[in-house]
Amino acid sequence: MAAMTPTAREAAPKPGTDDAGTAPPAAPARARRRPRVWRGAVLGLGGAYFLIPLIASFVFTVHTPGQGVSFEAYTALLAADGFTESLLLSLGLAAATIVLALLLAVPALVAVRLGAPRLRSVVEVMCMLPLVVPPIALVTGISTVLRWGPDHLSRTPLYQTFLAVQNENFPFVLVLAYTVMALPFVYRSLDAGLRAVDVPTLVEAARNCGASWVYVMFRVILPNLRSSLAGAAFLTLALVLGEFTIASLLGFRPFAVWIVSISGAHARMSVAVSLLSLVITWALLLALSRAGTAPTSTPGAPDPARKTRGPRTSSRTSPKES
Asked: Phi, psi (5° rounding) for residue 214?
């Protein structure tokens, strides 16, 4: 037994050396650094894939062979015919489409989640149908209905409705078409948010406390769906600002159609306005994503800033202590 037990001199670690069990091996450390290198290489290639064409387009707009650098293509945008009108029209169509799509999807999905879970598959199929129908078929059906309406409803009050939805200042028919095209993206975003929240329990608790359905919707359900609502608005905005087929075939001129219309006569200006539209779209999308991730302050919830503060010591004494 004495031979098998280590002596104190053998068991004690040598000075200047660490314990073998706590020292990290050198080989795993190298293995951990390799994925970081590959990750940086992949991110660098992806960034170059997106940035190099944008940089080349910007150089094309500001550099003229034999004349040097000039920002005339950007300064002439504000004075270009139809630039401001088409941009404001696209932004107005995007805002109306977001509002209409959310007004249709949010109550429907909440009602299905609370009262009829078996209808979820039916609602999903109906919302996903626009992915199957191509935009060219959709615009063909819309144009057929718009031509058929005035011929058969000229003596009814609906005749003025057909004329109003085709107003060039704000074509509401485009809002209806864009809402149908955005339904798949809105549905997926809201369905993911509703799956992450126990909606029946929240609604039942709020109703037991005496809250009305309007209060439950605006103060209980919608704050918990903030990120999902922002994601749905995010995708709808990108869809409307970049849509060309339906607006062009129906004869309207939003921002995407205006860019294509000036591309033949002003090549540099068309590329400049395309870059500007990317910047505007990115800024709006960043604002929506920022709004979706902003923290919400629930009434009665403790303030996290107060937790970091220490207890206040008052120098005043109460009348009882004095």
From this structure: -65, -45
